[in-house]
C-alpha cells in the first residue's frame, strides 16, 4: 500500500475518533453546566449554598476538561485537514495532557465517592432538621425539591417518617410535612394521623439517583480514555507517515 493511501485511511479514522472525542467532551460540558445552573436539581441545591461549594468545584473541573477537549478537537481537525505536523504534535500533546488529567480526576472521584455520599446523606438530614424554619427562607428552594421528591415518590424522610420527629420547627410534635401525605395543601406541615402518611423512606430513591449520575460520569470518563488511546496512536502514526511521504512522495 502506498504511503499516501495509508495517510488517507488514517485521516479518516482520526476524524471519526476525534468526532467521538468532541461529543464526549461536550457531554462533560453539559454535565458541568447542568450541575452549576439547574436549580431543580437536589444535588446542586444541597451543595451550592453556604460554606459547602462542592458543586462549584465539580462543575469547574468538568467545564475545564470539557473546554480543553473542545479546543483540542479543533486543533486536531485543523491539523488533520492541513496535514500540518506542528498542529498534529500539539494535538497529541494536549491529548496526553488531558489523558493524565482525566486519570487523576478518575482516581480522585473513586477515592472521594464514599466521602461525597456521606456528605450527601448528612446534608439531607440537615435539610430535614431546618425544614420550615422561618429564619431560613433562602433554603426554601431545597425544601420545595425535597417536597417534590417525597410527594412524587410517595416516601417520607431519608430513612422513614420518624426522622421528622427531630424537626423543631413544627407547631406540635405530631405534625409532618404535607408532602408526606396525599394532601395537596401548599403548607410546610400538616396535622394528619401517622397511619395516613407514607411510611417508606426516600433513601433508596435518593441513592439510586446519586449512583446513576456517578455511573454516567464514570462511563463518559472511561469512554474518553479509550478514545484518547486510539487518537494518540493514530496521530503518532499519521505524523510518521506524513514525514515519510514528504521525503519519499512516490514510495509504494
Essential attributes:
two-stranded antiparallel ribbon, mainly alpha, 252 residues, 2 strands
Structure description:
The protein has 252 residues and is mainly alpha-helical. It has helices at residues 3-37, 42-47, 54-82, 85-130, 140-153, 203-247, and strands spanning 176-177, 189-190. A two-stranded antiparallel ribbon has the order 1-2. Helix 1 (3-37) packs antiparallel against helix 6 (203-247), helix 3 (54-82) runs antiparallel to helix 4 and helix 4 (85-130) packs antiparallel against helix 6 (203-247). The model has no long low-confidence stretch (mean pLDDT 80).
Describe the structure concisely for a colleague.
The chain has 252 residues and is mainly alpha-helical. The chain is 69% helix and 2% strand. The protein is built from 6 helices and 2 strands.
Tell me the layout of helices and strands.
Layout: H1 3-37, H2 42-47, H3 54-82, H4 85-130, H5 140-153, E1 176-177, E2 189-190, H6 203-247
Antiparallel strand pairs: 1-2
Helix pairs in contact: 1-3, 1-6, 3-4, 4-6
Amino acid at each position: 500500500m502506498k504511503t499516501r493511501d495509508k495517510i488517507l485511511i488514517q485521516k479518516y479514522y482520526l476524524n471519526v475518533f476525534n468526532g467521538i472525542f468532541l461529543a464526549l467532551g461536550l457531554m462533560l460540558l453539559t454535565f458541568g453546566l447542568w450541575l452549576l445552573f439547574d436549580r431543580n436539581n437536589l444535588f446542586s441545591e444541597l451543595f451550592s449554598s453556604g460554606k459547602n461549594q462542592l458543586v462549584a468545584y465539580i462543575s469547574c473541573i468538568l467545564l475545564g476538561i470539557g473546554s480543553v477537549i473542545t479546543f483540542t478537537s479543533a486543533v486536531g481537525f485543523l491539523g488533520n485537514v492541513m496535514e500540518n505536523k506542528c498542529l498534529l504534535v500539539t494535538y497529541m500533546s494536549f491529548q496526553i495532557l488531558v489523558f493524565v488529567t482525566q486519570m487523576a480526576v478518575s482516581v480522585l472521584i473513586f477515592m472521594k465517592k464514599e466521602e461525597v455520599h456521606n456528605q450527601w446523606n448528612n446534608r439531607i438530614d440537615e435539610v430535614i432538621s431546618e425544614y420550615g424554619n422561618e429564619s431560613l427562607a433562602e433554603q426554601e428552594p431545597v425544601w420545595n425539591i425535597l417536597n417534590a421528591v417525597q410527594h412524587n415518590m410517595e416516601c417520607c424522610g431519608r430513612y422513614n417518617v420518624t426522622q421528622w420527629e427531630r424537626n423543631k420547627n413544627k407547631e406540635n410534635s405530631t405534625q409532618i410535612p404535607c408532602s408526606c401525605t396525599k394532601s395537596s395543601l401548599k403548607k410546610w406541615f400538616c396535622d394528619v394521623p401517622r397511619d395516613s402518611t407514607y411510611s417508606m423512606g426516600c433513601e433508596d430513591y435518593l441513592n439510586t439517583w446519586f449512583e446513576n449520575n456517578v455511573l454516567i460520569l464514570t462511563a463518559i470518563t472511561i469512554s474518553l480514555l479509550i478514545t484518547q488511546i486510539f487518537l494518540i496512536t493514530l496521530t503518532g502514526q499519521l505524523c510518521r507517515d506524513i514525514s515519510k511521504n514528504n521525503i519519499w512522495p512516490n514510495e509504494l
